[in-house]
Hints:
The chain is of the alpha/beta class. It folds into 2 domains: 9-31 and 286-413, Lyase, Ornithine Decarboxylase, Chain A, domain 1 (Beta Barrel); 39-281, TIM Barrel (Alpha-Beta Barrel). It has helices at 23-30, 39-56, 72-80, 90-98, 115-124, 134-147, 185-193, 215-231, 255-266, 280-283, 317-321, 410-413, and strands spanning 9-10, 16-18, 21-22, 34-38, 60-65, 84-87, 106-108, 128-131, 151-156, 198-204, 235-237, 273-276, 287-299, 303-308, 327-329, 339-344, 353-360, 368-372, 392-397, 400-405. Strands 4, 13, 14, 15, 16, 17, 18, 19 and 20 form a 9-stranded mixed beta sheet that branches. Helix 2 (39-56) runs parallel beside helix 9 (255-266) and helix 8 runs parallel beside helix 9 (255-266). The chain is globular, with a radius of gyration of 22 Å. It starts with 8 loop residues before the first strand and ends in a 7-residue tail after the last helix. Ligand LLP binds at residues 65, 67-68, 86, 109, 169, 171, 206, 209-210, 239-241, 277-281, 317, 321, 377, 381. Residues 65, 67-68, 86, 109, 169, 171, 206, 209-210, 239-241, 277-281, 317, 321, 377, 381 line the site of ligand LLP.
Amino acid sequence: MRNLPDTAKINKQNHLEIGGVDLVDLAKEYGTPLFVMDEATIRSRCRKYIDSFRKYYPNSDIAFACKALCAAGVIKIVTDEGLCLDVSSGGEAYTALKSGVDPKKIYFHGNNKSIDELKMAVEAGFGRIMVDTSQEIKNLDAVTRELGRRAEVMLRINPGIEAHTHEYIKTGLIDSKFGVPRNEIDEAVRFIRAQKLISLVGFHAHIGSQIFDTKPFVDEAKLLLELTKRYGTKEINLGGGPGIAYLSSDEPPDIETYAKIVGDVLRDKTGAKLALEPGRSIVGTAGVTLYTVGAVKDVPDVRKYVLVDGGMADNPRPILYKAVYDAKVANKVNDKPVEKVTIGGRFCESGDILVRDIKLPEIEAGDLLAVLCTGAYSYSMSSNYNRVPRPAMVLVNNGAATLILKRETYDDLIRNDIIL
Ligand code: LLP
């Protein structure tokens, strides 16, 4: 199934298994909620990107957008597969540097970077810095002069392209806080070129996330191609990748199709290097979140709630974007689905619903629920709402589990409290 990790299986005990590891055993060992990441799926998506672009546009770099999942254990895998890294804050950049990523392979984003963040990027020698406003260009100029070091930048433009996705994750509309509007590109290019220690390498755009339609990507590639010709630049950065199937009925374009449509627009035109920054399509399907059912509450003639030990703090996507997820009862996967239930979280908000109206097997307290496709933008957007510690994360592969993020403790939660 498209919305399960590649290695998912149902074993003889009727349990869900990922990476050769029984999820029931995993929950016993590490507790719940638990983020489970399948290493083989992450590696296979990285390879698919590299192989597809080698085929359709060989002069390209793939950078993992670590805003989708920033954890040293994951950064290690993707960079090991030959990917670069897209970071969008000093914190992500720090994690990348501490994980041993070559600074030249780091692309630094952010629509309002602080002076300290710019200093960090220039000092460490990050490969590319994406600039978004003239104020930022001025700030970067001051930083390069102060440090006596050069910076290679890409100008983020606002492509004004409509992509069909949730309003909050569209980024390329005219009315957007991201990128330089099209009618100001000329002035911005002149301004960058007037700075002593900054070189303009090319143009960058990002049209949004969780996009299934391929046409906006074609339009975006055409626009960046035109700018590359007009200004004689040498690099094109198309931003994030295509969407993924959260439900088995979803039909996103696969990575190879995406590479083909983009490659067909750009190939044999300028010789510019292409860069892409997929996040969700690398880690999204690789992850599931395991929860323990604490109680089942039947509201007669209304709905049956299945209450689990996590929710909006470990996965805010349903409450933020009305995101829809699929789930399996991991300790009885193949039992017959008997009734529609709604999976509610443990947090103090009525909107803390993980999955609405899903048909599942008979379910009771103590059962183990696996919510699918939570590898992207769950942990990275998690919070400590209600002062609940964040879950642990394990990587599974070839029958073994490796802890890559420790479960937070109550002491972690009060670490910054000043007790008067
Ligand atoms: N590059 C840039 C400049 C971006 O802003 C993003 C995502 C990406 C790359 C990666 O895009 P992807 O391949 O993952 O679609 N929190 C939202 C998603 C926000 C995406 C923001 N930018 C969600 O949970 O759906």
